[in-house]
């Protein structure tokens, strides 16, 4: 229990630090990109223009990295809207299938007809894509990836066992694979930015930290269960929001987002 709290505090501290750096760096990249774009328009086709385009691509890669760091530091603006998470996940399944390739069998299972939450759909897509790519890397000879959406009611008694979770109604997204799994050492550090066991170029160590930041910024919780040889399960708990009543013209009734 203490271990989980210590871990949460550590993530908070790293989040503050990286979020601050990423924020300033992102502003600089915006200036670089903007200026390169203006120069590119003034330069005729040829080698000079190609150099500018290469610099522009590097700036875009940098912006993608800072975007993930901003998500981890919870400084990524979220455009949260009431959505049925089951429908969203079903909608993303083609993209996920293409991302993991044919050697991996993807199953999406949605239980219940209404799993509503206040959520930024494009950030959720990004998070699921990161999880799917990790699962793919953990199953080089193929396997099964299951994405399940269901409802979870965390009772006060249960939340005592899980000190990082508030009791309440949640939409639960479980992403499980039949891959290599993680050792306890890797599992403990997996959400840290820049922690990777992959070779340079294959991993940045920012995938899970982006997912962590996005979920906590959405008022949710994330849990990781993994054992070597037994695969990995990532559980994302998003606070349930009520579906708007058809006859209620005043708009959706949404549970206020709990303070982070
Ligand atoms: P990256 O994928 O770039 O290494 P992540 O933050 O997404 O960065 O993951 C950090 C590390 O956690 C990975 O390098 C890997 O060791 C481990 N990991 C993440 N997801 C899985 C998974 N599904 N199965 C096994 N190990 C995983």
TrEMBL record:
Range of the intact protein held here: 254 to 513 of 637
Q: What is this protein called?
A: histidine kinase
Q: Which residues form the Histidine kinase domain?
A: 20-242
**Membrane-spanning residues:** none
Sorted alphabetically, the keyword list is: ATP-binding, Kinase, Nucleotide-binding, Phosphoprotein, Transferase, Two-component regulatory system
Q: Does the keyword Oxidoreductase apply?
A: no
